[in-house]
Amino acid sequence: MWGQPGITKKMRLSNGTSSWGNGSIPVSTPIARGDILRSLQLYTSGTLALTPGTGTIAADVHGPYNQYSNINIGPSNSAKILNVSGYGLYLINLMRAKEHAYASYDADVVTVQNAADFTDVYTLPTTGTKYDNTLEVPVAQLIKSMGVEVGLWQLSEQTMNMVLNVTPASASSASPYNIYSTTAGALPYLTTGNATVTLATPTMDVLRYLYKNPVNAQDYPPFDFVSVWTEDNFTNALTKAPVYTFPTNSGLLARACINAFDATAGNGAAMSTYFAANNAFSLLYGTSDTKDMVSGYELQASTAKEYGFLMPKGVFAFDWLGTDLTLSDVLNTSVLLNVRFVLALGAALPASSTLTVDYQLLQPIVAG
């Protein structure tokens, strides 16, 4: 029986290393067949050349994770189980931080005697040549109330061709790649004047987290659900009343993260300007039933209490799984119709701003 001693073992196996190709073109990495996939780890590295000239160079507020415009994974002949931007994946990592080691390695939080070099897992320097960072690509989701991870994928099936697609945001056609912009939020480095930043021979190392296949068929885990992460845009995003409606009959809505980026300020949208009202964020269903109605201040404070840290500026998390990882508070989109976010902003976001949502659905698998 799954979960009993000796039935399986957790494994960490390299899936190899890929190089960036033509900028803005997806790099496809087939995930090796065999055993049961839990998650992936994506480690990116390369050699920097920072040339300030008469301008300036600074780390972008979304750097380094906006190095990728899109990251998706799924069976080659089916819908994606994750389809988000690089920065969106970073926000997903933050929401999953309390589960285990899913927080992205961009800060040292524990003092360790003679610690290994932090730059072995994360650098975004404005001097030097080393550049690297790590992102986790979630596949399965632990549900403590069920006593099992849901969304596991059996890669040993002959028809299973799982593929990770990663699209570099740089438009350069070959190494060295330009990873700078004078527009905030666009690429890992924000520059002024004639300053440039390039990345030579960037590579992506993919690590698989797996369960070993059990010997007996009756000992396999249940494959009853798929965990799906999606990134999408609000409608009427540049008005004072943006709305996002989740797909109907799409599964159990477990988490969502709203990211409001002010293009004029070049940073996350300011709390006092946009989210001060006590109805700044409403989660509604049906005709007008209310699940949540909070100000930005209230939401950030409750998130900090739950997670133990503050989310980035302009980012607001709704976690219905909670840190206890149970299904008691998730929203069933087959029962609760017209589930939607309705925002009441203090002002409309300026032109070129973005308002996105990254969300997780647990979708039951229905036998055909």
Key words describing this protein structure:
Adenovirus Type 2 Hexon, domain 4; Jelly Rolls; mainly beta; 10-stranded mixed β-sheet; 368 residues; globular; 6-stranded antiparallel β-sheet
Strand residues, percent: 35-45%
Q: What is the helix/strand order?
A: EEEEEEHEEEEEEEEEEEEEHEEHEEEE
Q: How many strand units?
A: 25
Number of domains: 2
CATH topology type of the largest domain: Adenovirus Type 2 Hexon, domain 4
Quaternary = single chain
Uncertain segments of ≥5 residues (pLDDT<50)? none
Query: If classified by CATH, what would the architecture of the largest domain be?
Result: Distorted Sandwich
What is the structural class? mainly beta
What is the CATH level 1 assignment of the largest domain? Mainly Beta
Shape: globular
Give the C-alpha Rg: 21 Å
Distinct helical segment count: 3
Give the CATH H-level superfamily of the largest domain: Viral coat protein p3
First-to-last CA distance: 26 Å
Mean pLDDT: 94
Describe the structure.
The protein has 368 residues and is mainly beta. It folds into two domains: 10-219, Distorted Sandwich (Adenovirus Type 2 Hexon, domain 4); 234-364, Sandwich (Jelly Rolls). 7% of the residues lie in helices and 41% in strands. It contains three helices and 25 strands. It has helices at 86-95, 271-274, 296-307; strands at 10-19, 27-30, 36-51, 56-59, 68-75, 82-84, 130-138, 141-143, 148-150, 153-154, 162-168, 177-178, 180-181, 189-192, 196-211, 225-233, 243-245, 252-262, 267-268, 281-285, 289-294, 315-319, 331-332, 340-343, 354-364. The relative contact order is 0.21. The model has no long low-confidence stretch (mean pLDDT 94).
